[in-house]
Amino acid sequence: MEKFIITRMATGEFEFVLKNENDLIILKSLPYMEKANCYNAINRVKLYSQKEDRFVKKENPTGKYYFNIKGGNGLVIAISRLYDNTQERDIEIQYVKTIAPHTAIIDQMTYKINCKKNK
């Protein structure tokens, strides 16, 4: 099952990843100081994944391909993993368009707190 997962980084900031059904990370966010901002970013990914112009296709200096999803303000919301060729990257973009709007959000911080309470 695909899922957005929110975690807290060692720096205390929050980030999210989008994982596919094989638990492979497809997208990763930039860090956010507030968890609420992380939730907002996920909701923007869900919305903007339906808009072709929000996907920015890129190539890194080592010849690997990736894409960013940008927000209404033009800033990057999420960065994809690296792909060996443009075809793989473009297939993944289509996959994100298909799954993102209805993918569940899992808050690892809430899950960890609930697990500790149940012990």
TrEMBL record:
Pfam families tied to this protein: DUF1508 (PF07411)
Domain DUF1508: 12-53, 63-107
InterPro entries: DUF1508, UPF0339_domain, YegP-like_sf
Membrane-spanning segments: none
Coiled-coil boundaries: none
PANTHER family for this protein: PTHR40606, UPF0339 PROTEIN YEGP
Protein name per Swiss-Prot or TrEMBL: DUF1508 domain-containing protein
Source species: Flavobacterium hydrocarbonoxydans
Lineage: Bacteria, Pseudomonadati, Bacteroidota, Flavobacteriia, Flavobacteriales
